[in-house]
Predict the structure.
Amino acid sequence: METTRIVQVDAFTDEPLAGNPAGVVPDADDLSTEQMQAIADEMAVSETAFLRSSDAGDRRIRYFTPAQEVDLCGHATIGSFAYLRERDGLESGTTTLETNVGVLEIELDEDGTVWMTQEPPRIREVELSYDRVADALGVDAAALEGASDDIPLAVSSTGLPFLIVPITYLSDLGSAEPDMNAIETLTESVDAAGVYLFTFDALERESTLHGRMFAPGAGVPEDPVTGTASGAAGAYLDRFGAFDDDFPDELRLEQGHYVDRPGTVRVRVGDREGVRVGGRGVVALEGTLVVPEDDEDDILEA
């Protein structure tokens, strides 16, 4: 019976059982698409990364949610390279990664921070009523309108598109009661992967903002800490002049506290490398998994 090694890495944190858990399959060259999807379903975390050889970069990663393949995932990328450093002895420096959105540059710092250079930003304003967005998110429409005087509702992408929605206070963010069906319909209407709801009213003094991300259409009702959405949010803030002429050299985005998986994403915008997302990770679980035959739909055995 064929087995494969499987790892869970908690990304955007230094503490196990915090941040965003990602599945990592270190040797996935012999796995079919159907097998990778079945493994991701069994892992039941928001994304599982499958590391493969590549002719275009130093390595390739394919990403799967429990429901579907996605083109890019920030926390699973951070988790994969944190694993390679901790278990495979990957040295600090720059490497290249082939993904479905192209070949990206990954930099590993001496302290273990993984930096992911994302795609050039693509940002567009959208015409949505605040009442519709508020109903989908389960928040007060006035809390959205009050936060959006200078920064509008928009879809931003640095690899994956997200509807970026500012809200006034942390209490408004924390009390959101999202309607997942309505959010899925909303995101489909603007061609976005999910909704990133944020406030500048953060928990920590050094933090730039606090965010929550909902992507039920991808099988992820609420993602604890989201690298792709954080990069998109950083590009959005730059595009709409959220800090006037004093844009910070580095943004610190809090996320995950409302699902008991707190973490922090570091984002750098506007330097010569483009939008860069950084964080650390820690291996929390290792084991093996039985791989099903390609034509099997049965639940995998742990």
